[in-house]
Amino acid sequence: MTEVPDVVGLGAEDACEIVRRAGLVPFGPEGADAPTSGVVTGQRPVGAAGAEEGAPVYLWTNRGKDLAGDLVGPTPVESADLDPV
């Protein structure tokens, strides 16, 4: 039995490498080939679960472009209306 690594939030290539190093086999959803791009947004089994060596780990990724580059902060007027944390 081996522990499934938690790879949510990692890039697809890094996540697949970590899964392989744990003795498991990465796949895309529904048995598709392992993802090669995007950020892992979900996995089954979940991180820290136990799995037999050689078992599949299914990875879901966000294949869209990096949306962080499109984010725009609030204007000074909008900022004034925000509650401080």
Describe what this molecule looks like in 3D.
With 85 residues, the protein is of the alpha+beta class. Helices cover 18% and strands 24% of the residues. It has one domain (2-66): Trypsin Inhibitor V, Chain A. It has 2 helices and 5 strands, in the order E-H-E-E-E-E-H. The strands form 2 sheets. It has a 3-stranded mixed β-sheet with strand order 2-5-3. The N and C termini lie far apart (44 Å). Residues 3-62 form the PASTA domain. InterPro entries: PASTA_dom. This is PASTA domain-containing protein. It holds the Pfam family PASTA.
Brief rundown of the structure:
The protein has helices at residues 12-21, 76-80; strands at residues 2-3, 25-27, 39-44, 50-51, 56-62. The protein is an alpha+beta fold and 85 residues long.
Please supply descriptive tags for the structure shown above.
alpha+beta, Trypsin Inhibitor V, Chain A, 85 residues, single chain, two-stranded antiparallel sheet, 3-stranded mixed sheet
Task: Present the secondary structure layout.
Blueprint: E1 2-3, H1 12-21, E2 25-27, E3 39-44, E4 50-51, E5 56-62, H2 76-80
Parallel strand pairs: 2-5
Antiparallel strand pairs: 1-4, 3-5
